[in-house]
């Protein structure tokens, strides 16, 4: 996840006070000058696969029926204890639709009691006033509600008339009870035109967070990858997102903007700053770059993890076709620390062993080589360049003689599309 607002607030402060702070090395408790112990990963936990909707871009390929073999409550509690001991800071409870799980609230109450930052990722259609009150009483730190566009677009994406109205009502019920709410939006060619209006809706509704997701190639999102907004539309959308986040940062608004599934957003922020605020870029561009490098881009398999409804552990939610082990057989902490799996070994490597234009890119230290599952879904090679990178050669420091080696194609089936290697391609 790329925390746009975090950087733009620093920039707004630097514009006011003249000083852009360098990244801090995390330290231990007060008086202890040693580096702090490394935290565990943020865990996105798909507790249930069942969903009352069948969205076009669902990575979980969920449907409205029960799935056999899902983790029982006591098993979830056991895993949670291990996660806590492993210094996992954040649990995002997801699905399917997590509110369909009868024990969701006991699970969430335990997560809060154990000290996790506890988030809920939901389609919002099941949140009426009593459910919102229960969410507030449970102590969720954050609720993310998916909206794919305005009414007509959203209902078409969600394949349910009235889904938009129900999700919007959920936002209002939660806000009325003081729960932090964010809108979650995935850009595709079919909903790009609603994006500006959704940003306005966020502000009008008092939602405090906007999560902008690029389409990733997993589940139904893989099948629909042919509709992925082309690079020009992506760049335009990101410029608008950065403009809005910059406006909020300078005005000190309680609005947070983040993006996900495309770590090229980090380098693109530098390009945006250079074009929009050349004086600030000249003064603080180097310090911003340093900060972005400290972030380091894609963290799947390292500081981001996924547990699915059956207890299988994956490098992130887009890697459901690659299981690392099951929490019924081995603790999560043991599975996550095990680098005998070549994919995990590569994901934990710094820099990652990426090829093509990613290997030659001037921004590799910021972006981390981006989203490996996209490379794997298109080419069969998890270490090929990311075909979802929307920066051109000049923008990544190449002279234009390195044509793309992996080209995005419409969905057929996994591993049937050969790597396209053109003469003069990079390493
Ligand atoms: S070329 Fe690769 S490393 Fe560079 S910005 Fe694009 S995706 Fe990231």
Could you explain how this protein is built, in words?
This protein has helices at residues 4-17, 73-85, 104-113, 129-138, 151-158, 163-176, 195-205, 219-223, 231-251, 265-276, 278-295, 332-337, 342-348, 356-360, 364-367, 372-379; strands spanning 2-3, 42-46, 90-94, 117-122, 142-146, 181-187, 209-214, 256-260, 304-307, 312-314, 325-326. The chain has 16 helices and eleven strands. The chain has an eleven-stranded mixed sheet. 39% of the residues lie in helices and 12% in strands. Helix 1 crosses helix 11 (278-295), helix 9 packs across helix 10 (265-276) and helix 10 runs antiparallel to helix 11 (278-295). The chain has two domains: 4-27 and 34-307, TIM Barrel; 348-427, no CATH class. It has 427 residues and is an alpha/beta fold. Helix 3 links the parallel strand 3 and strand 4 (117-122). The protein binds iron/sulfur cluster (SF4).
Give the class from helix and strand content and strand pairing.
alpha/beta
| Name given to the CATH homologous superfamily of the largest domain | Aldolase class I
Strand order of the largest sheet: 1-8-7-6-5-4-3-2-9-10-11
The ligands bound in this entry are: iron/sulfur cluster
Provide the CATH top-level class of the largest domain. Answer: Alpha Beta
Number of strands: 11
CATH architecture grouping of the largest domain: Alpha-Beta Barrel
Averaged pLDDT: 89
Largest sheet: 11 strands, mixed
Backbone CA Rg: 21 Å
Total tally of structural domains: 2
Order of helices and strands: EHEHEHEHEHHEHEHHEHHEEEHHHHH
Protein name: Heme d1 biosynthesis radical SAM protein NirJ
Cofactor: [4Fe-4S] cluster
Domain Radical SAM core: 37-251
Keywords: 4Fe-4S, Iron, Iron-sulfur, Metal-binding, S-adenosyl-L-methionine
